[in-house]
Amino acid sequence: MVYSNSEQMRCIAELTRVYSWRRVVAVYEDNTHGGDSGGLALLSQALQEVGSKIEHRLVLPPFALISDPKEAVKEELIKLQEIKSRVFIVLQTSLPWVTHLFREAKNMGLVGEDTIWILTDTVTSFLDSFNTSVIYSMEGALGIKSDYSDSSNAYKSFHAQFRQIFMSEYPEEDNLEPGFHALKAYDSISAIIKAMERMSRNSSSSPKELLNNILSSNFTGLSGQISFSAGELMHSPKLRVVNVVGKKYKEIDFWFPGSGFLKSTEDENGGGAVKLEGPVNWPGDLKRIPKGWAMPSNAKPMVIGVPGRTSFQKFVRVVNASDDVNGYDGFCIELFQEVLKVLDYYLPYRFVAFNGTYDELVDHVYNKTYDAIVGDITILADRFEKVEFTQPYAESGLSMIVPVKSEKSTWIFLKPFNWQMWAITGATLIYTMIIVWILERQPNSEFRGPLVDQIGTTVWFTFSSLFFVHRERISSNFTRVVVVVWLFVVFILTSCYTASLTSMLTIQRMQPDGTNIDRLIRNNLTVGCDGDSFVRDYLQNVLKFNAEKIKKVSSEYDYSKEFQDKQIYAAFLELPYQKVFLSHYCKQYASNTPTYRFGGLGFAFQKGSPLVADFSKAILKLSENEKLVELENKWFPHSPECSNDATDNETDSLSHKNFWGLFVISGATSTVCFLILVIKAYWLNEDQANGSPNKSRIVSIARYIYYGRTVSPSVPAVSSSPEIEAVNIPNASPRESSGLLINSR
Question: Membrane-spanning regions, if any (predicted)?
């Protein structure tokens, strides 16, 4: 008749999940029946499934063996004061122990703000039996109890009889209500009676027959449905979450394994709430959700470790270690103070400067010497095993810094255009040159004569147009159109070329000196890094640098001197430090390797601390409202001389993609003018070409374009030997008519 504890433990685990209680303390009595009766293992498994864990176990000795229960429980509770978790789950415990436990816990301040007590049904079912002083010491506790229906006729009949009999036997008791265990006892007797009645109808009777009849029971009892499978109750109980308020308790929500927390059983098939829907009276009349953690107080503030020796003091700087207000400065310190303003509660703290490595500082949080770390702590996998980090407030990575050298090139005049741009520009120029020669060959005498002279004139004309110094007369209107478009293209190209070349000559172009990791390792060159950070171990264990060739540099201002003295040939800095360093030395140094990424910079807390979630949320808010950007601009301003860093603002060569439209317009214009000339030649030769083969027509058109007149295909236009040919020029002036047009062939 005993329900399995698994569902109850899952309900408790769900409470820890929805309220972000990551660490709990299990409290139970080590009695003669097996301690916690298996509840501890079930609880541990359920907590593990939701990301929580049992941090400590408070095991109470059997009550019957203790002569002074008050002192015994006080000694155990003193141990809890050294533990940060303030979520106490009371498992199997006798009622006398519960009485002493809560009274002493109340006196020691373990029942109050940010403290949670969760009771299993072994305690909750007897809340009606405790006197008011014990209930008062449990104020704010949450309990799990099995629910039952009190509206059935069977329950009403039982309730009336129970009150009457109980009052007659225990007249001094004030509470006459039957508890859940009374209902279970009644259902147990009912199951046995029904089994015996079935046996009386049969001739055979034996203990085995009685057991079989009991296990075949199937009826609705006062505590719920009574039916068995494999020797256990088939139906899980309906669990109810209760809240101790004042000198009594109130029922809040139901909990169903597949649905979560619900206000009523009618919503069982629907979606449950994320948290308890009913109002909860938290311990100490707290208006917010308790943290379930030993929160700092003025008497016992949070101890925060701060890196005491940092290479880049703009992140963290210890001015006066004894002054928590003005003795610590830097970007990380001011960010921490801004986070405190966002939190909805007061958080007393005390800074402690730590003059050791960052890994040693993390170990001090792991062993609970410090509660947290505020500083430029890099989030790494091995550190994540020891502490919990907040949301990163800055990106992190490892990059290599090397000296830069000025870029000098004999062929810098070619760099304004890339090679594709030069090739397309040259092709367009040649094409335009050919079209101009074709169009001007017929009407312009300056483009006639020996072939060498024609080529020279055409090339000179086209190239001189680049500088607008050509002297040749243009006769054809088609040529004028081509030249106008070409001059427009030339104007755009020369303007862009001049601007790009001027920029390249004006801005000092700086390039890394070519040093890389392989060269450093191969030549056994010395590199520098911050010796207190993880970088030294990373260079040695991951990048395989020789430990003797890794030099510790203690200040950001020492890197430049180490480079100048040839003590180091490269420096390995985390990305935030690299940005600060290059903002001051952008003309002398540059990053010369892909960045090795890490988890970022964040604050560190003890495992299970609820402050991690609060700080992460606050950092996100500061990032969203740009307060984080303001802090970065305040502490890491850009140097005026590095605002236009040539390393980051190099003038790139112009590409043909930037001028594709110009080339298309120029080429299309030249092509259209040439096609018009071809069509004109075709029309003029059409009459003479009737009946002629296509090859003869093409020859006639080509002769017209070259000679400027129609020539019959049957009459050869060119003799095999040089001769002088007189040509009548139509519509020519007398001076022109008297002359001869000499063609030398």
Answer: 419-439, 481-501, 659-683
